[in-house]
Design brief:
Strand order of the largest sheet: 1-4
Largest sheet: 2 strands, parallel
Shape: globular
Number of strands: 4
Order of helices and strands: HHHEHHHHHHEEHHHHEHHHHHHHH
Strand content: under 5%
Distance between the termini: 42 Å
Oligomer: single chain
């Protein structure tokens, strides 16, 4: 079933990109209507998609997926943006795009397992150490609401939010395990701490007033044709949402590195909460670009990932609920826009959530890379990953900071195997 779902996701996402209905890369979305308006050629559209997405696929999506053995959705949907735009937007091109997308989906799922199996057969098996890359993510993700509050409302409110999150963590760790009848219930300290931080983040955001004149309701009025174009394709977007929710429920894909790391640790409640918070953060970006361009995202505002995690192990149920949520989301674009106008602080909060999550992940994955490399070879592992990070900064074509930790840890593990074969390194006793 895993291969069927992943091939269906690859095929449908490629077709959506081919027809200009939905693309995953937020930066690429505004370019799609320029092709349909005749301002750029198909080749220019495809070349731009390749230029802004390929590096993220090989430098971020795939290394992060290997580290956790769960496919980060960027590995698939950024590539299907490229595949969909490479072929012409006629019937033949749509069929070719669908076939190529399905084959790519199968290749990424099968290839990931092949790579994992290959690594496990190396003279020095560093896969268990590589799992340490995601360990700091599971511990640190609860602090992102405090960072977002500090970015939006200043250091003082951010520090208060951070202090409350830390205090809640200690309280839950100390008193969060209790018995109900014969069952023992253990609350997740990180998840509860993040929940309190998120509530405080929303509280501060809803109290924000602004004199901003531009609002999303104006946008929906001006771009009513684009909104209608999205809503006209509700059924195929619903199908896409259902497939993504089903794939997430089978734990073969994840929507972001935070929930991916938590899923790898089996922390489903925390992973769902992280995915839900991320979806809230993406509402302003996805909806605004969708309203202006008439092009949606294949995963929408990404609520379908939270649905898939909550219904893990039930792919059929997850498919139905995911599809329904996606359709509701599409028809609520206008309502969401009005809501964001009523609470402008919530609209602005989205950008701060995305930025704070990226900053927390960047640091956590770098620390995770250092920890993993040090587990492989104590001392020199720190030197390698930190050196990799700093030298990457000086490169003419640096890989994204988020990917440095996983990429450096994988490169270090391969290097140790080469040195072991050459007799320049011995296995630790």
């Amino acid at each position: 079933m895993e291969f069927i779902i992943i091939m269906a996701i690859g095929a449908l996402a490629s077709i959506l990109a081919n027809k200009g209905i939905a693309v995953f890369n937020d930066g690429f979305r505004p370019l799609v209507p320029q092709y349909f308006d005749g301002k750029i050629s198909r080749k220019e559209l495809a070349a731009t998609s390749f230029a802004i997405s390929f590096g993220l696929v090989v430098g971020f999506g795939i290394p992060t997926s290997i580290a956790a053995s769960i496919i980060l959705i960027h590995s698939i949907l950024l590539a299907t943006d490229i595949i969909g735009t490479v072929f012409k937007d006629d019937m033949k091109g749509m069929i070719f795009a669908g076939v190529a997308g399905a084959l790519y989906g199968a290749a990424i799922l099968g290839g990931l397992q092949v790579i994992v199996d290959l690594f496990s057969k190396l003279p020095f098996d560093f896969l268990s150490a590589l799992g340490g890359v995601s360990a700091p993510v599971t511990a640190a993700f609860a602090i992102f609401p405090a960072v977002a509050v500090a970015m939006q409302h200043g250091f003082k409110k951010g520090a208060i939010t951070g202090a409350v999150s830390v205090l809640i963590w200690f309280v839950v760790k100390r008193f969060g395990t209790f018995a109900i009848g014969e069952a023992t219930v253990a609350l997740n300290a990180e998840g509860i701490a993040m929940l309190f931080g998120t509530v405080m983040m929303l509280f501060f955001a809803t109290r924000t007033k602004t004199d901003a004149k531009t609002n999303n309701q104006d946008l929906t009025n001006v771009f009513s044709t684009q909104v209608s174009r999205i809503q006209k394709n509700w059924w195929v977007l619903g199908l896409m949402g259902g497939l993504i929710a089903a794939g997430t429920s089978l734990l073969i894909i994840a929507g972001d590195p935070t929930s991916l790391a938590l899923l790898a640790e089996g922390q489903f409640a925390s992973a769902a909460m992280a995915a839900f918070a991320r979806a809230i953060g993406f509402i302003p970006l996805v909806f605004t670009t969708a309203i202006v361009t008439g092009v949606y995202g294949p995963a929408g505002a990404t609520f379908v990932f939270a649905i898939g995690i909550l219904l893990h192990g039930n792919p059929l149920f997850a498919f139905v609920v995911g599809a329904v949520v996606m359709v509701i989301e599409v028809f609520l674009i206008n309502a969401f826009a009005k809501g964001m106008d009523k609470f402008p602080g919530v609209r602005e909060m989205g950008e701060h959530i995305r930025t704070s999550m990226s900053k927390v992940l960047e640091v956590a994955l770098l620390v995770g890379g250092v920890t993993a490399a040090n587990t492989m070879a104590n001392g020199i592992g720190s030197l390698f990953v930190i050196g990799f990070y700093l030298l990457n900064k000086q490169s003419k074509k640096p890989i994204v900071d988020l990917a440095v930790g996983p990429v450096a840890a994988i490169a270090f593990g391969i290097l140790l195997n080469i040195l072991l074969v050459m007799g320049l390194w011995v296995l630790p006793v």
